[in-house]
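ok so i was messing around last nite and threw this chain in just to see what happens. nothing serious, just curious
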Amino acid sequence: MLYKKFIEFYEKIQGTSKRLDKTYILSKLLKTTEDEDIERVTLLVQGRVFPACDQREIGVAAKMIIKAISNATGYSSNSIENYWRKLGDLGKVAEELTEKKKQSKLFSKELSVRKVFDNLQKLAGVEGKSSVDIKIRIISELLSNASPKEALYIVRTVLSELRVGIGEGTLRDAIVWAFFPKVVGIFVKCPHCKNWVPNSNKCPECGSDLNTNFNDAVKEADGRILRVKEVEEIKNKEIKDYDFIICPDEKTAREVYNYIVNCVQDAYNILTDFALVSVEAKKGILSLKKVTLKPGRPVKVMLAIKVKTLKEGFSTVGKPAQLEYKYDGFRVHIHKWKNHVKVFTRRLEDVTHQFPDIVKAAENINADSFIVDGEAVGYDKRTGKSLPFQRISQRIKRKYDIDRMVNDLPVEVNLFDILFYNGESTLNKPLRERREILERIVKEKKGVIVLSTKLVTSSEKDARNFFNESISHSNEGIMFKNLNAPYKPGARVGYMVKYKQIMETLDLVIVGAEWGEGKRAKWLSSFYVACRDDNENILRIGKVASGLKEKREEGLSYDEVTEMLKPLIIKQQGRYVEVEPKIIVEVAYEEIQKSPEYESGFALRFPRIIRLRDDKPLDEISELNHIRELYENQRNRKTKDN
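result:
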């Protein structure tokens, strides 16, 4: 595929804020991509040349880009810096100067997706004395052959500054729409442009109103048709060679469509790389279903639903239930294969280097290969008592003084699940069997590696006592788990729930901030925080200015958060800065209020930052529907009190 064709699609995606339109355009791009480029395109459309779980970095600073633009266009570095100050975007600078460039190559070649992608990947492998010059030369070559628009996107990709709002759900649905038959009813034929498009108010192709009912859509289907009466009929059938799937009614159509979506999502939760998912999806749904775990490749953790009462915990997972302590640590997956051990966080980050003590602890697991799930909990060496997550979280990002950190902030690994054992996936084994495997192969060693404290019971009284016992050990609460359930990576399916008897906090992402005044003038000291909705939109819900400390030794400080946010600043106006949504914080509050001031429709009364949540990815911040539910429950309590 020519890079300019890819850019045309990218421009269209960038030109709309509607998730449905983005998904439709992206699906057309994927559908028209040749097999050999599908991985590259799927990564590039996310602004990446490596998947999120890959720790390699391009490692190019703005100064290198300025030099590369200079080489490609003939403009001096000083001129380029002046343009940068005026435009505030090196990508725009590259676009404008490429349009005006003084040097014109006689034999410039059209850039292909492969050429751009492979060159950018090369940047990560360049090391040594001449690495800066080599990197500048690689980028210069691309820019010399690039059109203005191509130069814009090459520079933004190198600097990780492509922001077009393509979230996981958008990419997943685009893969479904691109590579699988259209489920009639979910898709309809536009009466104006005659394209088959997702059933909504407006046609994403021509913008006309859509007013097509289910029966009319069925009549229009023409081609290779698979007729099914229920979703079971396609569960072991290859469906990619059909154009349409026709069901007896809209309800069945929705079930069939959701089944296909879930197959793609399940594959992603295991592979954690949509580029690989695209490759398998092009082969067909049976290839997606054969995707399996591989030690060394991170996998999504299974997630828990929150419950308000012990009774709700039992009713959700069933009786008897396995109860476990809910530790105040950070989630880890430990992988072993051959003579290798790797440690990943729930954000799929490789923290093997930061936690050599966890690698050492894995020696107490008697297996040739495994993937185990657990919580790493910090503790005080003098007292043996658990430390709060905030104390130990500083080890996650640490690159230096590792030995000192291991000594000062040791962790104990509390294992509670196993996903892979001696060459085979255990995902579909029931929890009771997975726990038995753990109990058989783990040699417990206090302060190093232990099994999670558990209780199997059907009694609310026993659960209450177990909860109190957990709290007395400085834990957050307890977990309820279904003894017969499989392990579902990345899913909140009710197989496990968490119960904490405290006011529920929110995990929100910082999207803006203001520089302080007076003695806080050197810090960002108030922060705009946001939740997310079902369409992956980031919506502001308030401004928080309390909870941080002025000195690092007192806890999470203004200085630390300012340092984290500085590289993420997108634009600045006066004291206000807008930042990329990457830093997640846990926020407590006195009350949720209705408010037209923020896009979410809500505001927080007396919010305060409790801690950094650098263990959580962006797709796990608090959802608007959940906040709405908290607001309604809060209102109901007030009504009862009155």
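not much to say yet. The chain has four domains: 3-158, 168-271, 305-499, 506-641.
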